[in-house]
């Protein structure tokens, strides 16, 4: 991945995204066409029809982002509904398919760290983008994600950062689609504003780990109703792919794979050890070492191809990010963190 700079009007940002990543966006559409068919029996035109139901919710809560999607659609010669469908892929696919990811936040010597592995299907590995976006009237931001999507994991120039854990659930209701809500968080100027996005409702369940450079951190198990809150415990928050808060589990039924609990236990153990052993200031390489952990069985945080799993359950770590929000710095490793020794160092 190379860093792509995007600026101008919302429409121009969308055009620039698609101009520089046209082939990757088209390839992403092909990937999700196959995924929707394999997992839900939907063809792309049927998935587009499903996605159009979310357009009024976006128009109500975040209308500016429709311009950006329109710019992308025009540049690739497609329809707005194509880009909308990419950005609603979680709402369409995570009601039927599993996702991955292991995330943590840690306050260490006055520095707020936020990190995660992003695990997904390997056929999307070459369609990932790192974007630095300067949109009118909002903070400059970095987002690491999939071509054609308006946002995912990242931070902004105000030190606001967000990580994501997928939650498999049949629940879907009112709110912003997950990836649109993530972009909205990255355009916030304060931790309180970012919290308000999570509180306002997200269409489908997910876990947003929100933090800032001042040392605030909170996990939000979002859905269309009141989100579950996960506060730091001894300066640490961890999360994988199952719901844990009483608030969320009261309203939402999730269907995680068994490895989510195993990874959570391993992540807790490693993160607590990292916290307790860091007498000196933490460095990004040490966090990547944690993310690159390998243990026998389903506990491994760094996920590799496993031929013993069914094809629709194959998840691999496609990138890892480590953020020092107090320094407004993001380190990126594209591919497995255990195999990469050099990181891209980025600033919003």
TrEMBL record:
Q: Which residues form the Peptidase C45 hydrolase domain?
A: 110-337
Residues crossing the lipid bilayer are none
Q: Which InterPro entries match?
A: C45_proenzyme-like, Peptidase_C45, Peptidase_C45_hydrolase
Q: What is this protein called?
A: Peptidase C45 hydrolase domain-containing protein
- Native source species: Halomonas huangheensis
């Amino acid at each position: 991945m190379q860093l792509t700079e995007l600026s101008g009007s919302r429409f121009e940002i969308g055009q620039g995204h698609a101009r520089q990543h046209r082939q990757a966006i088209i390839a992403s559409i092909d990937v999700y066409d196959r995924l929707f068919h394999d997992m839900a029996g939907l063809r792309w035109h049927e998935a587009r029809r499903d996605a159009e139901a979310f357009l009024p919710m976006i128009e109500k809560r975040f209308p500016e982002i429709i311009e950006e999607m329109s710019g992308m659609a025009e540049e690739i010669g497609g329809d707005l509904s194509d880009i909308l469908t990419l950005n609603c892929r979680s709402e369409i696919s995570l009601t039927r398919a599993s996702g991955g990811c292991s995330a943590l936040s840690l306050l260490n010597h006055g520095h707020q760290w936020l990190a995660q592995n992003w695990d997904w299907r390997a056929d999307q590995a070459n369609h990932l983008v790192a974007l630095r976006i300067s949109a009118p009237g909002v903070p400059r931001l970095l987002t690491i994600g999939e071509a054609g999507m308006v946002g995912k994991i990242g931070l902004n120039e105000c030190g606001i950062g967000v990580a994501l854990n997928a939650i498999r659930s049949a629940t879907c209701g009112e709110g912003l689609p997950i990836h649109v809500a993530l972009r909205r968080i990255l355009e916030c100027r304060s931790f309180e504003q970012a919290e308000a996005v999570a509180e306002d409702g997200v269409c489908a369940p997910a876990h947003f780990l929100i933090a800032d450079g001042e040392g605030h951190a909170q996990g939000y198990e979002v859905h269309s109703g009141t989100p579950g809150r996960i506060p730091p415990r001894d300066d640490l928050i961890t999360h994988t792919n199952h719901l844990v808060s009483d608030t969320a589990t009261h309203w939402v039924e999730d269907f995680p794979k068994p490895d989510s609990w195993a990874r959570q236990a391993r992540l807790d153990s490693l993160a607590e050890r990292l916290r307790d052993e860091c007498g000196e200031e933490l460095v990004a390489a040490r966090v990547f070492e944690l993310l690159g952990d390998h243990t026998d069985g389903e506990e491994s945080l760094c996920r590799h191809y496993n031929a013993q799993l069914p094809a629709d359950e194959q998840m691999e770590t496609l990138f890892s990010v480590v953020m020092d929000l107090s320094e407004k710095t993001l380190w990126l490793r594209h591919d497995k963190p255990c195999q990469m020794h050099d990181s891209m160092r980025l600033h919003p």
